[in-house]
Design goal:
about 250 residues; alpha/beta; Rossmann fold; 8 helices; globular; binds 2-amino-2-deoxy-6-O-phosphono-alpha-D-glucopyranose; EC 3.5.99.6; Glc/Gal-6P_isomerase; carbohydrate metabolism; allosteric enzyme; identical protein binding
Length: about 250
């Protein structure tokens, strides 16, 4: 595992965007696994800048998002569909048909989850999967207790996650109770994982994910099983780590 500790959120965002841009340059038809939440926003802003100012070309890129709430209309400003279009897709030259986000409004949610897995397979899997981390150690919406072999499915959100995400809604009562999320097994099949975290509220989860035992109680700890995972975190998120880490990539990444 590679762990890069940066001084600031902006530096995390720049490095993450550079790694993704590098892949887009070298593999114009790459599949990007994308995440929502506040953490990847800076990386998305930088990718938009690279598209506008440097001509970074997304015209053949395919994307797969990690998760979506159940029961929020796609145009609801808290849905992850809305989030992705507002914060990335509408600002770059991605083809809408190449965008994949789990459908939280499907009549048959289970069938939609199976279909999502098939679509990922049909595109040859995910090349780089961007991940945030929940303060309770969740990845995507795989809450503590999620099977480490899980696939895309319907999950119930924990009260902690609903409280964490309530800041985006008028009140906690409006935060959906259910979601559709790629499973941990699905995420681990991506060829590369890029986990971003910033701020003191993530320090415990980051330490448990990186230095704790692999356990379903900390879903992010499953990334220890992955052969190519890079954590890019700031000092506050790194504060509870005990081993020694670096501030630069140890190799040219692609
Ligand atoms: C959300 C998302 C995750 C995200 C996490 C952290 O609930 N489902 O994909 O990584 O929680 O969010 P944030 O980046 O806002 O701290």
């Amino acid at each position: 595992m590679e762990v890069i500790i940066k001084e600031s959120y902006d530096q995390i965002s720049l490095l993450a965007a550079q790694i993704i841009a590098d892949l887009v340059h070298h593999r114009p038809r790459a599949s990007l696994g994308l995440a929502t939440g506040s953490t990847p926003l800076g990386a998305y802003r930088e990718l938009i800048r690279m598209h506008r100012e440097e001509g970074l070309d997304f015209s053949q890129i395919v994307t797969f998002n990690l998760d979506e709430y159940v029961g929020l209309a796609e145009d609801n400003d808290q849905s992850y569909h809305y989030f992705m279009w507002e914060n990335l897709f509408k600002h770059i030259n991605i083809i809408p048909a190449n965008v994949h986000i789990p459908d939280g409004n499907a009549k048959d949610l289970e069938e939609a989850c199976e279909h999502y897995e098939m679509e990922i397979d049909d595109h040859g899997g995910v090349d780089v999967q961007l991940l945030g981390i929940g303060s309770n150690g969740h990845i995507a919406f795989n809450e503590p207790g999620s099977s480490l072999g899980s696939r895309t499915r319907i999950k119930t959100l924990t009260q902690q996650t609903r409280r964490d995400n309530a800041r985006f809604f008028a009140s906690i009562d409006e935060v959906p109770k259910y979601c559709v999320t790629m499973g941990i097994g699905t995420i681990l099949e991506a060829r590369k994982l890029l986990l971003l975290a910033n701020g003191a509220s993530k320090a415990e989860a980051v330490a448990a994910a990186l230095e704790g035992p692999i356990t379903a109680s900390v879903p992010a700890s499953a990334v220890q099983l992955h052969p190519d995972v890079t954590f890019i975190i700031d000092k506050a998120a790194a504060a509870k780590l005990k081993r020694e880490y670096h501030s630069e990539l140890s190799r040219v990444d692609r």
